Amino acid sequence: MITVNNDPKPPPVGGVLWSMVGDIRMLLTLPPALTMQVAHPAVGAGVDDHSVFRTDPWGRGERSLVSLQLWVYGGEGAAEEGRRLRRLHKTIQGTDAHGRKYHALTPAYYAWVHATGYPVFRYAQQYLGRPFTEAQERALYAEWLQVGRILGIRDRDMPQTIEEFWPYYHKVLDNELEATVVVRELIATDRPVPVPDRGPRWLRLLLRLTWPWLGPRFVRFRRFLTIGLMPPDARQAIGLEWTDAQERRLRRFGKVVRAVVPVLPERLRFMPIARRARRAARG
User: In what residue span(s) does the ER-bound oxygenase mpaB/mpaB'/Rubber oxygenase catalytic domain sit (predicted)?
Assistant: First the structure.
């Protein structure tokens, strides 16, 4: 008997996401996307009540990054990762700061978490790489919809075209987003961040020794990138300030990134899951 696998497939090899998601520049886009997600009161409440982002920020970040790469480079394992995430979110529920009940898998909330990726990737690309052409923007959106299917997001719960996306996006900005407790924590510069506990032993030892000096600088840099790489309309909706001087600094930073990252060897430019997938695709 022939078994038919109806699992949604990952985005195509060689597509826009294939080139982006494993690149180390993707690390810089995660903070603004996460902050836009938790600016929704229901999502922010779920993270506030159930996430370990305060006690294990590095572990949580690593798991999110691995999951993102599996959606794109995971092959047949991509759909299983999507199912795993849905199982993980089944028990996440409670009441938000406005007294409204939430559940992590409520379609509108679950879709918003996914939707934030598209405007952040699109906006950050202007600083970290070459701006997308219109054709690339459309391909990116189509591929991001495909990732949504891997996550179990139904087509009726996400706008299916770019033309439908922007009215949906601005409606959420205008009516839902706010500076939640979690947003304020993510951009705070007076809250200590634990010493990173990932990597080789020598690196962990070095970080423990230098973290009293490095830690405060890291949180200021994180705030800078979180706000700077967030689309201005989302920044305004949440109430985050951004000055002309900061914009000039971000443009200078982006210029360095655009010059350095493309010339790095593959083992330094791409993260491990992406490197393995790229080697396999080349045969």
Answer: 18-259
